[in-house]
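Page 37, top half.
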Amino acid sequence: MGITGMMSTVPLRIEATARAQAVANIRSAVRAWLTSREVPGERAEEILLAVSEAVTNSVEHAYPPDAPGVVIIDAEVAGGTIRVSVADHGHWREPVPAAGGKIGLRGRGLNIVRALATRLRIHHGTDGAHGTTIEAEFHLTD
């Protein structure tokens, strides 16, 4: 169904503890929200993958393992676009390339989000205000 068939523009907000076991629950909630907005299947899967990658980055990199903080997901429909933000209050860490120029098995999350999103912005925290926010937009039509 096209954009005009979307039944609701009610935004989504999820606040969860940034732990690995939260990723699946967040993914389920985002999937249900996308389904209720009648986002076409393939585009919904791309958005879901991008959100999962962004949330996983927060879970794995924002906080020390013994002191997880919060990850906040906001999503909204704006015309023919889904806007999603994933935010944490942790510390930004620059991606580190694999040793010796090898292709690493990890560290591809932001590149995946970049490839799937129509527009991507990453806001790094400052010394006075920690946190990272990833804002991604996904057009629903060509």
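Page 37, bottom half:
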Amino acid sequence: MTNSILALCRHAPYGTTFAREGLEAVLACAAMDQIPEVLFINDGVYQLLAQNPQAIAEKSLYRNLQALPMFGVERIYICQRSATERGLALSQLQLTGADVQLLEDPGSLIRRFDQVLSF
């Protein structure tokens, strides 16, 4: 029996390694047939914005994000409060190939999982 896994993406895409390590962990789980669901919350919602990381001499996370649906992560969740507090609209937070769902109550989603990975 496999455990259900949720990855919480809580950090901005650049400035620390949390975002990159989180996406790499999601892809590693999926590659081992343990496909996690993913919730973008707090500053993690910024990971879904179009970005120009070269302007700050960082490596882009875009390829990691694009790979999620190819590895079986077909639905992502976005905390509606996090997006609203940061002035972001759902139309700005899209991932090609994934079903994007806004959540009013992320706590109810989190409680459904056996394991929660926080990045």
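Margin note: The domain at 5-118 is CATH 3.40.1260.10 (Hypothetical Protein Ychn; Chain: A,).
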